[in-house]
Structures are given as structure tokens and as C-alpha cells.
Design brief:
Elements lengths: L13 E5 L6 H10 L3 E6 L11 E4 L5 H7 L20 E4 L11 H21 L4 E7 L16 E2 L12 H20 L2 E7 L2 E2 L3 H11 L12 E2 H13 L5 E6 L10 H8 L4 E2 L13 H7 L14
Parallel strand pairs: 1-2, 1-4, 2-3, 4-5, 5-7, 6-11, 7-10, 8-9
Length: 310
């Protein structure tokens, strides 16, 4: 059977994970559990797989009091029978959000995402949590939810890019990044913002990737890049282990571009007016994960070419 995790760390952490019942979290939490961590899921809906050993505490993250209380909760009901009274966790991973535009009106998307992110970061910092990870988004790069056809300023898309989105969802994510930077500076803690690419679940390779490969223009808004939900779990674990970086932004994608040819050839044909700021790898994803490979030591386990015949 194929190995789908990196070796288990002996440094087990108590983690509060928000939004764990969502598309990404339902894969990230099992990965974290497989690494020996203990996890509490804060969500408005139950965890979708009842066989997973995680307790879900129904929490409205737009309510600051609920957030402070949830971050000092038992991780599950067994906490009443053994161990001390609840203490703040070792790490907080905040993925909960409206995951795109057009789920609710734009102002509600912005209000809920910004308020919940502020509440989670503030509570974690004031309770003494030293490691916080928040979900930002590929949409920060300004093309995903642009009105009409828009071009990227340059390739590769890296963390120092001048982000300039025009939609409420992406704007809420940039506000989250700025909030993280402010609190990391004030409280001298690590807060890492993940600009997460298009999340792909295992079953979606067979369903969706053939059309991606045959119609590459449809993937411009995702920068011809993706993140396997299971590999996102590895990135979360690596970020928990890597301390002392303060505020950081990390692109979270897999290694390779989702087209048939090489990256340079494809971008020259598809985006002839967009400059390259450096030499790119032969099949490097335009939404580059170079920083997580160099800084966190990420090694992907789920290259799309393992699951899709080109």
C-alpha cells in the first residue's frame, strides 16, 4: 500500500482546528491525527466522517466570547474524566470561512470572514497560543474572481507579489493576512497565512482533471495550479513543527502545472504579454510552492500525474 504520510513526529500537539468539516479540513484533520496530534474541530456542522476520532464543538466564530471559550475547552468529552481543567491549545489552525463568493451576499462574506479571523487570532494571542495558522487564498492574486478576463502581473506567483483583487472574498483574505501580521508583531508569536490553491480531493482527479487537461483555458483563474487536500495536511504539520518565523505568507500548492506541456512553453503561448521574474522549473506550477519547499521542507506525495493519464 502506498505511503500517504511523512514519518510520525514524536512532538504531539493539542490543536484547535476551525472549519474542519469543510472540503480541506476533512482531509487535513485525519492527517494531523495520523501524526499523533490531538484535535478539536470548531464548526457549525458535524465532521463528515464519523469514524474519524475528532470531536466537533459547534461554535459561531463571529462571536468573540464563543471563540475565547472554545479555545479553553476540553478536546472531547473524555476530558471530564481525566487530566487537568481545560487549557489553551498548543496551536490554532483557522480554516473556517465562507469559501467563495456567491454563497451569501458579498457584504456578509466580507463581514463573516474578517470578523471570525480577527476573533480567532485575537483570542489565541491573548490566551498565549504561540503558533497560529490561517487560511488565506489563491484569490489574493486577483484573477480568480476578477470581472471578465484578467491577466496576472508576472509569473511565478510568489508571496511578495503585489496583490490587487477586486472581489469581496479575496479582500476578506487580505484583511486576514494584515490582521495576522499586526498580532504577530504585537504578541511576538508565529502566525502563518496559507494562500491555499484550488483544493482537490482524491475522487476529483478522475472526475475533473480530464476536462482541466483538455481545456486548459478554464484553469487560468486557478493559475493552472492546485493543492491535494492530503498534501495540505502535511503542510499544516510542517508549519506546526517550524517555529520562530513570526508572520509569514506561504503559497500552498503542489509542485506541477496542470497542463500537458512544459510551464515555459505553455505560459508563452497562453499569456504572451506576462513577464517571467525568474527562470521557472520545467513543470513548475505558476502559483509557486518554492517557499514551502525551501522553508518548511514540503515534499508532495500526490502529484496529479499519478492519478490522471495524459
Amino acid at each position: 500500500m502506498e505511503n500517504t504520510t511523512i514519518p510520525t513526529s514524536l512532538d504531539s500537539k493539542r490543536i484547535v482546528f476551525t472549519g474542519g468539516s469543510g472540503k480541506a479540513g476533512r482531509h487535513v484533520i485525519p492527517y494531523l491525527l495520523s501524526k499523533g496530534h490531538k484535535v478539536l474541530n470548531l464548526d457549525l456542522t458535524p465532521f463528515p466522517d464519523p469514524s474519524t476520532n475528532v470531536f466537533t464543538l459547534k461554535t459561531d466564530l463571529t462571536q468573540s466570547g464563543q471563540v475565547f471559550n472554545a479555545l479553553t475547552s476540553h478536546l472531547n468529552m473524555s476530558g471530564y474524566a481525566s487530566g487537568p481543567v481545560p487549557q489553551p491549545p498548543d496551536a490554532v489552525i483557522h480554516f473556517a470561512a465562507y469559501a467563495r463568493n456567491m454563497l451569501v451576499p458579498d457584504n456578509e462574506t466580507f463581514h463573516t470572514n474578517v470578523t471570525s479571523t480577527y476573533n480567532v487570532i485575537e483570542a489565541a494571542c491573548k490566551l498565549g497560543v504561540k503558533k497560529i495558522i490561517i487560511a488565506s487564498s489563491e484569490t489574493a492574486y486577483g484573477v480568480c474572481f476578477a470581472q471578465g478576463d484578467a491577466d496576472y502581473h508576472s509569473f511565478p506567483l510568489e508571496e511578495d507579489y503585489d496583490v490587487d483583487p477586486e472581489d469581496s472574498y479575496a479582500l476578506s483574505k487580505i484583511c486576514g493576512e494584515k490582521t495576522a501580521r499586526a498580532f504577530a508583531r504585537r504578541f511576538n508569536v508565529d502566525i502563518y497565512a496559507f494562500r491555499i490553491g484550488n483544493v482537490i480531493e482524491p475522487h476529483e482527479y478522475e472526475i475533473d482533471f480530464p476536462s482541466y487537461i483538455n481545456n486548459p483555458s478554464s484553469r487560468k483563474r486557478n493559475a493552472w495550479s492546485y493543492i491535494d487536500a492530503r498534501d495540505l495536511g502535511q503542510i499544516c504539520d510542517l508549519a506546526i513543527q517550524k517555529s520562530g518565523l513570526g508572520f509569514q505568507i506561504f503559497n500552498c500548492t503542489n509542485d506541477t502545472i496542470t497542463v500537458k506541456g512544459t510551464t515555459k512553453e505553455f505560459l508563452a503561448k497562453e499569456c504572451p504579454g506576462t513577464k517571467l521574474t525568474r527562470e521557472m522549473g520545467e513543470f513548475e506550477a505558476p502559483l509557486s510552492n518554492k517557499k514551502i519547499r525551501d522553508v518548511l521542507g514540503f515534499e508532495e506525495l500526490h502529484d496529479w500525474k499519478k492519478y490522471v493519464q495524459v
